[in-house]
Amino acid sequence: MKAKQWVLKKQFQGNPKSSDVGIKEISLPNLKDGEVMIECLAISVDPYQRLFVKNAKPGDVMYGEQVAKVIESKNADYPVGAHVTTFAGWTTHAVVPGDKLVKVPEYPPDVPIGLALGLLGMTGLTAYYGLLKVGELKEGETVYVNAAAGAVGTVVGQLAKLKGCKVIGSAGSDDKVKYLKTELGFDEAFNYKTIPDMPTFEQTLKRLAPKGIDVFFENVGGLAFRAVLDQMNVDGRVALCGAISSYNSTDKFTPSIPSIGEPMTMKGLRITGFTGWAYSAKDKNNDGLKEMIKWVQEDKLKYPGHNFKGFENCFKAFLSLFTGDNIGKVLVTI
Amino acid sequence: MKAKQWVLKKQFQGNPKSSDVGIKEISLPNLKDGEVMIECLAISVDPYQRLFVKNAKPGDVMYGEQVAKVIESKNADYPVGAHVTTFAGWTTHAVVPGDKLVKVPEYPPDVPIGLALGLLGMTGLTAYYGLLKVGELKEGETVYVNAAAGAVGTVVGQLAKLKGCKVIGSAGSDDKVKYLKTELGFDEAFNYKTIPDMPTFEQTLKRLAPKGIDVFFENVGGLAFRAVLDQMNVDGRVALCGAISSYNSTDKFTPSIPSIGEPMTMKGLRITGFTGWAYSAKDKNNDGLKEMIKWVQEDKLKYPGHNFKGFENCFKAFLSLFTGDNIGKVLVTI
Questions:
Q1: CATH classification at residue A111
Q2: Residue B246: its chain A contacts at CB < 8 A?
Q3: ipTM metric
Q4: Do residues A244 and A309 share a domain?
Q5: pLDDT tens digit string along B242-252?
Q6: Sheet order of strands, B270-273 included
């Protein structure tokens, strides 16, 4: 069996360029006991992959998760036809040992299998654990989430509403703002690109969250980070799951956030960095996933997304994460 | 009774100037029931007072804690001769109601009463709660503390050693570095003023903490903040008690810390801002203070400090906090 793979040709410098990557074809080996052959159904593109490239070598397959169908099996736990997720990278086919596979649970009818990479996968669970475990959200509190129209942010806002909270989101276009308010039920939303400076940003938060912010779900980084801290309440929590504004920076010491000492100490704030993976690994019974599936069945969660079609569009899909053109989860369906 | 008081004449802009403050004399009122008259023994000067001035008005007495002796009393709980601490500000005498006083416990012989403002007061307890509660320090871990020769840092290092940990400190002169290593038992110490750039700072930390840093006791802020995060271990904790590098800044959005998203998320780090006061208030039985007094009795804690003598030197003592001339706790004894 042949497989097509996206490989790194050259480490990214600043903004990733199409000349940094390429597609090659390889022949897959025969199966050994315990292994299966998978055919990719959809590939997840995510901002974190930008960071992983920093530790990759030229020739490495682009890192990432996919949902796939087992097409040949020497592992009784994963028979032909089973749906799995795995970190096989950007590849159309692969031979994978059973211990690198996660079985996709039976979905309700009409729920697309791609959700295993989004709402019912890494990004949805990142929102779930970040808001409810890291952020320790309590009923009646106020949440602010940036990159609110993204794969994680769209879920954060909906979960906050399910938990009886007020939620404010920021996004990069008027269309996104409208979508957040009319389709996803955000209480407030604003287009950060129309905000001219940090004092105006602070006034905007003050106006939209007059009782202050209790939980800040942070995906972005940059100057605004400090402005949000200044609007937080005593004992506020920051669930820090990303900092997309800095991922393409070539110098990690380029100043981009002002000192946070004053609001942190005076208000006893806590910032916790986390990944959905780390929390999923601790959640032995998959309680998070079970609760999310229940909400999907009850029609309580929407799952906007943008599907790029065709394996050759993986890199284009990846670049779209940094231009902010999409609402919800970005996938490549094969 | 007359009292001398330091008052704010003009809000500080950038570095505090002596023309921003002045001394005035007032007449104290007669005591009402429940009140006492106190005579100041020593005044604490601390970096946090720089922040409090931002909320003060011209004419306000400079904010701060003092240890004092009761010289007249209409409160049976605080008889004449009792030692108390109170936030009466920079004043030689004051009339204070009983509910604004804290009794100083009986000290072991030879222990100076000024420790009620330092090792056995706010700064010592800030080190105690920050390292042991906020930082959740465990035996065998590695601690890095900056401003290590300061009132809080000198205690942090000693407590870390008492808890069987490795401790690395940074300070602003070779004399301080020598003092930390030879007198206070720090495992490693370095003079940050001799470090030419951030890559060298990182290499220094890597060399001195080859197993990585588990707890970062942060007093400073600035660019180095990010460099330390990069040397921290998975699940590391930052106890953020101050950011002296930014206190005299006139623009809170002057960038001074680079984005922290990458190390925070990838390593699941946690930053908790705190004050010693907030934790003292939670510690209803004063367990922290009792443990600290026990260690002093057992001769396990040293208490370096610099006493400015005379009420007229309060502002000079305060300015010395920002020039880094002193080791340990800075007090003004009256």
A1: 3.90.180.10
A2: 258-259, 261-262
A3: 0.86
A4: no
A5: 877 666 666 67
A6: A188-191, A166-171, A142-145, A213-218, A232-240, A270-273, B270-273, B232-240, B213-218, B142-145, B166-171, B188-191
At residue A86, does pLDDT exceed 70?
yes
Note whether A104 and A190 are same-domain residues: no
Mean pLDDT for chain B overall: 93
CA-to-CA distance for A128 and B325, rounded, in angstroms?
A: 49
Domain membership of residue B165 as a residue range: 122-277
In a domain, B153, yes or no: yes
Copy the structure tokens of residue B54: 């931002």
A270 to B272: CB separation less than 8 angstroms, yes or no? yes
Residues of B in contact with A259 (CB under 8 A): 221-222, 225, 243, 245-246, 249, 252, 256-257
Q: Are B6 and B86 in the same domain?
A: yes
End-to-end CA distance of chain A: 17
Q: pLDDT, tens digit, for every residue of B146-200?
A: 999 999 999 999 999 999 999 999 999 999 999 999 999 999 999 999 999 999 9
Same domain, A91 and A131: no
Cα B334 from Cα A139, distance rounded (Å): 52
Answer yes or no: do A135 and A262 share one domain.
yes
Question: Given CB atoms, is B252 within the 8 Å cutoff of chain A?
Answer: yes
User: How far apart (Å, rounded) are the C-alpha atoms in residues A171 and A324?
Assistant: 9
In which residue are the tokens 């922040």 written? B51
* Residue A255: predicted pLDDT: 65
Number of domains into which chain A is organized: 2
B143 shares its domain with B223: yes
Residues A98 and A232 in one domain: no
Give the C-alpha distances (Å, rounded to integers) separating B76 from A201, B34, B66, B68, B269. 54, 8, 21, 17, 50
Q: Which letter, b or e, does each residue of B276-307 get, where b requires 16 or more Cβ atoms within 10 Å of its Cβ?
A: bebbbeeeeeeebbeebbebbeeeebbbbbee
- Inside any domain, residue B71: yes
| Out of A210-219, A241-250, A287-296, B83-92, least confident range | A241-250
Radius of gyration of chain A from Cα atoms? 20
Report residue B77 as tokens. 């709980």
